Amino acid sequence: MFEGANPIVFELAKELRRNMTVAEQKLWSHLKQGIGGFKFRRQHPLKNYIADFYCHKLKFVIEADGGIHNKPEVKEYDAIREQNLNEWGYEVVRFTNEQIFKDEEKVIRRIADIIDELKNKR
C-alpha cells in the first residue's frame, strides 16, 4: 500500500498531516468520510512521493496546490511527479487552493465523477 516508501518519507508524511494547509483541511472534511463508498488517506506515502489524498482501492491521488505550484521549477517537478505516478498506475487530479475555496461543491462533484469512472475501470 505504501509502494516501497522509505522511513524518511513516512516521517515527512506524519509532519505534513500535523500541518495541513487550510485548503487541505477543507478538502479533507469531505474526503475523510469517503465518497461513493471509497475511503481516502491524507498525506500518504507512495514510493518517494507523498500524495495529499489517496484512495488505495482506486489508486487515485488528489493534490491540493497552493501558489508555490505556479513557480516554473515546481511546475516542472509536478509534471515529472505526475508522469511517474501515472506510469505506476495511479490516477492523479490536481485542484488549486483557489478552486477548493471558491467552488468547493464543483471540486467534490469532479472527485465523485472520477471515482465513478475509476470504479468502472477496475
From TrEMBL:
Record-given protein name: DUF559 domain-containing protein
Signal peptide: none
InterPro entries attached to this UniProt entry: DUF559, Endonuclease_DUF559_bact, Restrct_endonuc-II-like
Native source species: Lacibacter luteus
Coiled coil: none
Lineage: Bacteria, Pseudomonadati, Bacteroidota, Chitinophagia, Chitinophagales
Chain ranges of the DUF559 domain: 12-114
